[in-house]
Design goal:
This protein is an alpha+beta fold and about 325 residues long. The protein has three domains: about 60 residues, RNA-binding S4 domain (Structural Genomics Hypothetical 15.5 Kd Protein In mrcA-pckA Intergenic Region, Chain A), CATH 3.10.290.10; about 100 residues, Pseudouridine synthase; about 110 residues, Pseudouridine synthase, CATH 3.30.2350.10. Helix content is about 20%, strand content about 25%. The chain is built from six helices and 15 strands. Strands 5, 6, 7, 8, 9, 12, 13, 14 and 15 form a nine-stranded mixed sheet that branches. A hairpin with a 4-residue loop joins strand 12 and strand 13. About 35% of the residues are buried.
């Protein structure tokens, strides 16, 4: 496949699942790492920073089930985030915090494999630099996050006092978080709760998984609409905030998010892969970090989400 040498530096490893066996390595990585941009992956291939079973490979090389893909990352030159003007839909703002309707495809904060602008960059520009730095220069204002493809309500702290107040509310579960999801599957029940613990997948460190030794996780769900024989619109309320919690729990129940290849979605009968999965943070209820007054912040699903619902319901 190439040279039997591995570049030095921090690495990320992915084990090829059965569903990607026989396909190209670049396609397998794009599905395993949905938060990574294709351009970022292409640069790593071009720079010889991708190996399969210890051998440097090009993106077109085919992989087999169980192959280990390793990406070797260059060191980050700086952690400081600079303002970058980007149009945003502001849902609520005062001198203490700002809530945004996060668009699909925008990452919450900088990190490995992330190409700016992120919400942090955009909000630094919007607030003229008035975001809390109590959590570190690399994540100004961040108190919680949404995945790259997830849309909807997200809040940022503008002062350190607000930052600590918001972190306290999230950690003590004083928030009420509601989501809408389009899933592939048709559950027998109309509603239910899942309390399966979640932890890192032992075979793929970029994924989470239901594990007996995991951290407690609690998701309530109900069917909003049975769109057709194979797809449903689901409402979720999460009582905990584990990484990828809704994606993991719904997949565990046999109804992965439509388009979420990381957690088991596969197109039916050779249909095309959706560009993104469909998960929307519909509403966040939280005490104001300074006044304690209840804030209820809502956002309607984006047009692409609504169009997909209508398409399945036809």
């Amino acid at each position: 496949m190439g040279d039997e040498t591995e570049p030095a530096g921090e690495s990320v490893e992915v084990t090829v699942p059965a569903g990607d066996a026989g396909g190209r390595v670049d396609k397998a990585l794009a599905r395993a790492l949905p938060d990574w941009s294709r351009q970022r992956l292409k640069v790593l291939f071009d720079d010889g920073k991708v190996c399969v079973n210890g051998s440097t490979v090009a993106g077109k090389v085919k992989v087999a089930e169980g192959d280990v893909i390793a990406l070797f990352l260059p060191e980050s030159p700086s952690t400081k985030v600079e303002p970058m003007p980007v149009p945003l839909e502001i849902l609520f703002e005062d001198e203490h915090l700002v809530a945004v309707n996060k668009p699909c495809g925008m990452v919450t904060h900088p990190g490995a494999g992330v190409v700016p602008p992120t919400l942090c960059h955009a909000l630094l520009a919007h607030t003229d630099g008035q975001l809390a730095f109590a959590g570190g220069e690399e994540r100004p204002g961040v108190v919680h996050r949404l995945d790259k493809a997830t849309t909807g309500v997200i809040v940022f702290a503008k002062t350190d006092e607000a930052y600590y107040g918001l972190v306290k509310s999230f950690s003590e579960r004083l928030t009420k978080k509601e989501y809408l999801a389009i899933v592939a599957g048709s559950p027998q029940l109309e509603a239910g709760s899942i309390l399966e613990p979640i932890e890192r997948d032992l075979h793929n460190r970029t994924r989470m998984a239901v594990r007996e030794d995991g951290k407690p996780a609690h998701t309530d769900w109900r069917v909003v609409q049975r769109l057709n024989e194979h797809h449903c619109l689901i409402h979720c309320r999460i009582h905990t905030g584990r990484t990828h919690q809704i994606r993991v729990h719904l997949s565990h129940l046999g109804m992965p998010l439509y388009g979420d290849s990381t957690y088991g979605f596969r197109p039916r009968h050779g249909a095309e892969w959706p560009e993104n999965f469909f998960l929307h943070a519909r509403q966040l209820e939280i005490p104001h970090p300074i006044s304690g007054q209840k804030l209820v912040i809502s956002a309607e699903p984006p047009e692409a989400f609504e169009m997909q619902v209508k398409k399945f319901a036809q």
